[in-house]
């Protein structure tokens, strides 16, 4: 048998390494699939480090080359592209993916939706109501129970008593299915997004001697992979050849120091680690569940699926793996572990976070979430109070009327009838609560975000963290990279200074001294990463394709322009022959390569930022190709005459230099400072990176929208300033600052060298360009702007980055954008949104979508709260005055369905318009419900209440129909109440159109047809309403209406639109009495203790619930803490008691973490407060 079994079996058995032998025989050769090494040997090998590992390789395989041969691979040509061979390797050593955790099934989601407290209460009420309706008391005695049950009830009606209970149950089922379906589609979307992120990850491997990019999931053991700066290693391997390679292994070991890797000291490379410097080639030795990340992951239970299969299948392992492949999306181990912003509690997450939490500051709660949480809790509390009062009033009224005024005795046989009344009152109370609690809010937020995320994909924004989408709408500052974001990242050499001559365009090869030309060609060809190359264009007549580092491609292009070929030089000196390489990093800002010359001496080639490298030059090649001395005075002159003019035209200047070193004694290569010095300058070239044509316009839009764009770049200050001017970041005549990293640091640090916030505050408001900046400068600037208190609104900062060194700044920012094309894996890792086209104008789209999310939710709130206010007041007063809510439970549930689920769909999917970019950001402290919205809510609420109360109390006279008030139990539905219900629903429908505008615009129909979802929902609801009224009958408590009555209802409904115009005419500024609602959580409301506890707990809960519900839980958590603290201090008990109580409250909270609709939360908050209130008298345990 082939060892496909081993993949599955080893998934969860760290101990039981050895595969079960097939029944046929235990022949070793059969087992290894003809490779000279087994899976276990490789696994044990990869667990060793450093010298131990080298020793083991030495003992078992003689050398890494030996191991390579046993794996039938070649260090130079890699594997052959033979599909059968690749397939076989996959079977023997496993595939490079880790099976993801199973998604929740639809039934599980239904079960979760059923946990909602309001729904449970309704279910219980409905069941009681059902049970009692079947109980028929003995007929003759019913007289003695008073006229309670008398009235219009005839035989047929008594039979129909069960309908109401059944109808409530049915509507509960509807709500549950809708909720579950929403959660399910959400989960599906996230998984799709996830797999897309994973499929996009590709890696360079050598096959048949050619370097090709393959999806990470296709890597197999024996592949020769090329690793370079910024990569996230997708598999375990052994270094075959490396240049100055440094790896960040903190994701596996937790140690933040970078580990040096070299062929002769420590060649073991592990999956999930990041390459921070250098480059090299590695032989892949373990993939998927057998790699180090995979093993950890499997232990954490991501391989549960495989474990279960193993138990069921045992021997039919082949089939198991086949089905597994189909089921598990090809998922690469490292990425699976790292990139899981959206899966709930994936094994690796929590542990990973625990480690990271120590050193990464937690991102603040998103603005919208803070405001929504607060608002929802306030509304929920109000609803609870209202519903309780309603029930109490109804019960008291009934008891007093029947037993006190009517002077009846409570007879046992009458009990069921009385209880039926109480159940009816209870149901009315619950209905009030159902309507009051805005459980559509998380739904609206989720739909709005999910819809935006989907659409943002089309606008080249791949959103990794949902709330980033909405935070972006509040952005007030963008710190952007220059290269690739503002510019095209297609670099070309356009000027050169060679042999004392400044050429304004590329010189003819004949104009340059042959000796100098030779050195230039060698210096560029050898001292550029061999992964950088220029390929022929895809389309005939197009531009040549640049692969690898773009600056290096520009230099290689320069060689081609000089009519020479860099490939021939590279063939003479292949990468293995390079003696020593000092790779580029942000500290050196240069790269150097040493080669051994035929006579035994060494030559060092160096290239880098001109002002840095020229300081290390002591000679320069003159016109005749011979070196002459190059003194500081010459350097100053060169800077003035060559470098500054080039930089002022927006060119990057790169200096190319060399140095000859003796072969005997051999220099000490570790002393870099002594080696890269006394260089001979060969040439200085000016590289142009043109500004993207659409950028100036995009930046103008940002500035109009109240967003400041700052450019943070590693380039020379003159180049940076020139590009900033071309982009429109700096305008002539403005008062702004352009600083270099050195100056910036000097200005923000005190004498002790510590950074002071006051000093940063003096600089950042005017700063527009930060040049020659190090990654720490970028991080300092972002942190400084975010922590600043000099402006009344806290700044919301977005940052773009592509390099490994941008990680910290991307993490610190409110929204981090990574480049999808040029970005390194490390940057993508730290980011919230990936720009798939690396273009600044896509950021503007993100701002537009972010603002649109915010507005959609405001629209929804405006609509929702109007319905809430009206329905609650109607149910409450109606119940108190007529002992029966004018709107029945089932009708209320229908209203709830339109206003929550459908309205959230309709209003949350409004497409964004350019107008969104014409206003300033809302800011963190701006309330969710503005004065205009408050005016609309109250105005429309008043209109609806007047209409409904008119209909309720004099409706029967207007329409000349029977009065529906004070109807006895189980009486048939009256036309009177049906008209009220119908009018109510139609007013909501027309008000939904009003709700499309929240800034007091007059034209509410503007752009309505650009949103088909909205139109279809409004029309659909109307159609269903007709069906309910005409054919709903007893279950919906509706009597069919005639045409005239329908027309009146419609007329009143359309009145909403006219009334909307009246409201819009009233200037908001004159309504001093209005108050806004839904402010962000104020800072003063939280004690420090609270904050500390909050971070821990909320952080943990956040991992658990990556969903809309998270809003509710965070809020609830905070409120519970506050209640705890307040009530504890009230009774001056010990504080420890409170903390102890708090932890028990939290453990209860964790038991209910997966609830799909949030009404639960509101209730449990109230329960918590109630129970705390009761605890007042007790001593604390």
The percentage helix is 40-55%
Largest sheet: 9 strands, mixed
Low-confidence sequence ranges: 1-31, 148-158, 307-364, 1082-1115, 1128-1181
Distance between the termini: 63 Å
- Integer-rounded radius of gyration: 36 Å
Secondary structure tally: strands:
26
Characterise the protein shown here.
The protein is elongated, with a radius of gyration of 36 Å. The strands form four sheets. Strands 10, 11, 14, 15, 16, 17, 18, 19 and 20 form a nine-stranded mixed sheet that branches. The chain has an eight-stranded mixed sheet with strand order 8-26-25-24-9-21-23-22, with helices on both faces. Strands 1, 2, 3, 4, 5, 6 and 7 form a seven-stranded antiparallel sheet that branches. By secondary structure, the protein is α+β, with helices and mostly antiparallel strands. The chain contains 43 helices and 26 strands. It is found in: Cell membrane; Membrane. Residues 1084-1111 form a coiled coil.
């Amino acid at each position: 048998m082939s060892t496909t079994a081993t993949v599955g079996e080893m998934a969860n058995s760290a101990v039981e390494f050895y595969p079960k032998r097939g029944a046929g025989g235990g022949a070793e050769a059969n087992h290894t699939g003809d490779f000279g090494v087994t899976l276990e040997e490789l696994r044990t090998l990869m667990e060793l480090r450093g010298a131990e590992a080298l020793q083991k390789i030495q003992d078992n395989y003689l050398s890494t080359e030996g191991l390579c041969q046993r794996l039938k691979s070649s260090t130079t040509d890699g594997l052959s592209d033979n599909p059968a061979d690749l397939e076989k390797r996959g079977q023997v050593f496993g595939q490079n993916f880790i099976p993801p955790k199973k998604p929740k099934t639809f039934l599980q989601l239904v079960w979760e939706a059923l946990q909602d407290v309001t729904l449970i209460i309704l279910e219980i009420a409905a069941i009681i109501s059902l049970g009692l309706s079947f109980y028929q008391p003995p007929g003759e005695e019913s007289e003695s129970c008073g006229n309670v049950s008398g009235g219009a009830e005839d035989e047929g009606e008594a039979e129909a008593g069960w309908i109401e209970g059944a109808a409530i149950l049915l509507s509960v089922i509807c709500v549950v299915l809708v909720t579950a379906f929403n959660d399910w589609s959400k989960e599906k979307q996230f998984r799709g997004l996830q797999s897309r992120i994973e499929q996009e990850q590709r890696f360079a491997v050598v096959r048949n001697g050619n370097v090709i990019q393959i999806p990470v999931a296709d890597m197999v053991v024996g592949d020769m992979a090329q690793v370079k700066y910024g990569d996230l290693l997708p598999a375990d391997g052994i270094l075959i050849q490396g240049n100055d390679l440094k790896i960040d292994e903190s994701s596996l070991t937790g140690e933040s120091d970078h580990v040096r890797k070299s062929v002769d000291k420590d060649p073991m490379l592990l999956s999930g680690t990041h390459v921070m410097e250098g480059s090299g080639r590695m032989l892949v030795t373990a993939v998927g569940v057998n790699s180090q990340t995979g093993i950890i992951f499997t232990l954490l239970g991501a391989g549960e699926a495989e474990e279960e299969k193993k138990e069921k299948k045992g021997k039919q392992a082949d089939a198991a793996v086949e089905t597994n492949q189909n089921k598990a999306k090809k998922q690469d181990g490292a990425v699976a572990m790292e990139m899981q912003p959206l899966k709930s509690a994936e094994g690796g997450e929590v542990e990973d976070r625990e480690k990271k939490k120590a050193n990464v500051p937690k991102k603040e709660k998103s603005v919208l979430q803070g405001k929504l949480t607060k608002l929802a809790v306030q509304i929920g509390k109000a609803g609870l109070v209202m519903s309780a009062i309603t029930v109490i009033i109804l019960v008291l009224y009934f008891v007093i009327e029947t037993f006190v005024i009517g002077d009846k005795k409570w007879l046992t046989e009458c009990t069921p009838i009385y209880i039926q009344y109480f159940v009816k009152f209870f149901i009315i109370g619950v209905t009030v609560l159902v309507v009051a609690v805005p459980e559509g809010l998380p739904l609206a937020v989720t739909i709005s975000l999910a819809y935006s995320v989907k659409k943002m994909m089309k606008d080249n924004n791949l959103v990794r963290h949902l709330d980033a989408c909405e935070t972006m709408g509040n952005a007030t500052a963008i710190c952007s990279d220059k290269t690739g974001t503002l510019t095209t990242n297609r670099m070309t050499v356009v000027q050169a200074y060679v042999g004392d001559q400044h050429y304004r365009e590329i010189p003819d090869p004949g104009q340059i001294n042959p000796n100098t030309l030779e050195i230039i060609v060698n210096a560029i060809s050898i001292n550029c990463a061999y992964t950088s190359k220029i390929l022929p264009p895809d389309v005939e007549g197009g531009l040549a394709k640049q692969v690898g580092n773009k600056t290096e491609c520009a230099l290689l292009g320069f060689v081609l322009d000089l009519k020479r070929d860099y490939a021939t030089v590279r063939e003479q000196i292949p990468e293995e022959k390079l003696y020593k390489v000092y790779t580029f990093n942000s500290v050196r800002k240069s790269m150097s390569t040493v080669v051994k010359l035929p006579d035994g001496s060494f030559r060092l080639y160096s290239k880098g930022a001109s002002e840095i490298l020229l300081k290390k030059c002591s000679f320069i090649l003159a016109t005749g190709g011979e070196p002459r001395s190059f003194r500081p005075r010459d350097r100053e002159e060169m800077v003035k005459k060559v470098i500054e003019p080039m930089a002022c035209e927006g060119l990057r200047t790169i200096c190319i230099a060399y140095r000859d070193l003796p072969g005997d004694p051999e220099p000490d290569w570790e002393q870099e400072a002594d080696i890269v010095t006394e260089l001979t300058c060969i040439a200085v070239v000016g590289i142009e990176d043109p500004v993207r044509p659409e950028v100036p316009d995009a930046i103008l839009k940002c500035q109009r929208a109240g967003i400041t764009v700052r450019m943070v770049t590693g380039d020379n200050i003159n180049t940076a300033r020139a590009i900033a001017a071309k982009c429109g970041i700096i305008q002539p005549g403005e008062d702004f600052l352009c600083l270099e990293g050195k100056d910036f640091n000097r200005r923000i640090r005190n004498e002790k060298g510590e950074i002071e916030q006051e000093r940063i505050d003096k600089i950042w408001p005017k700063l527009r360009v930060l040049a020659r900046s190090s990654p720490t400068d970028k991080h300092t600037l972002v942190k400084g702007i975010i922590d600043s208190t000099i402006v009344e609104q806290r700044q919301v900062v977005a940052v773009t980055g592509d390099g490994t060194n941008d990680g910290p700044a991307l993490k610190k920012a409110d929204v981090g954008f990574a480049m999808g094309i040029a970005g390194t894996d490390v940057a993508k890792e730290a980011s919230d949104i990936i720009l798939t086209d690396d273009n600044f104008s896509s950021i503007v789209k993100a701002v537009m979508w972010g603002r649109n999310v915010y507005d959609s939710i405001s629209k929804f709130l405006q609509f929702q709260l109007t319905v809430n206010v009206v329905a609650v007041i109607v149910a409450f007063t109606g119940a108190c005055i007529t002992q029966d809510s004018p709107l029945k439970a089932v009708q209320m549930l229908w209203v709830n369905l339109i206003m929550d689920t459908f309205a959230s769909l309709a209003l949350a999917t409004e497409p964004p318009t350019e107008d969104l970019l014409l206003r300033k950001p809302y800011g963190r402290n701006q309330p969710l419900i503005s004065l205009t919205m408050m005016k609309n809510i109250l105005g429309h609420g008043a209109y609806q209440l007047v209409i409904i109360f008119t209909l309720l109390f004099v409706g029967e006279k207007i329409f000349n129909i029977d009065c529906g008030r004070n109807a006895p139990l189980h009486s048939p539905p009256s036309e009177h109440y049906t008209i009220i219900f119908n009018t109510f629903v139609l007013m909501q429908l027309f008000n939904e159109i009003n709700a499309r505008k929240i800034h007091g615009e007059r034209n509410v129909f503007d752009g309505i047809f650009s949103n088909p979802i909205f139109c279809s929902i409004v029309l659909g609801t109307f159609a269903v309403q007709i069906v309910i009224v005409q054919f709903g009958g007893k279950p919906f408590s509706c009597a069919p209406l005639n045409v005239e009555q329908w027309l009146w209802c419609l007329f009143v409904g359309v009145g909403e639109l006219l009334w909307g115009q009246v409201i819009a005419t009233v200037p908001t500024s004159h309504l001093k009495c209005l108050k806004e609602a839904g402010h962000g959580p104020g800072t003063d409301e939280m004690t420090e203790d609270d904050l500390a506890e909050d971070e821990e707990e909320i952080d943990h809960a956040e991992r658990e619930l990556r969903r809309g519900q998270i809003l509710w839980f965070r809020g609830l958590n905070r409120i519970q803490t506050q209640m705890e603290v307040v009530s504890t201090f009230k009774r001056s008990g010990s504080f420890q008691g409170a903390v102890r109580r708090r932890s028990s409250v939290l453990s209860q909270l964790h038991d209910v973490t997966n609830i799909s609709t949030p009404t639960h939360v509101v209730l449990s908050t109230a329960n918590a407060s109630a129970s705390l209130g009761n605890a007042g008298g007790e001593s604390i345990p």
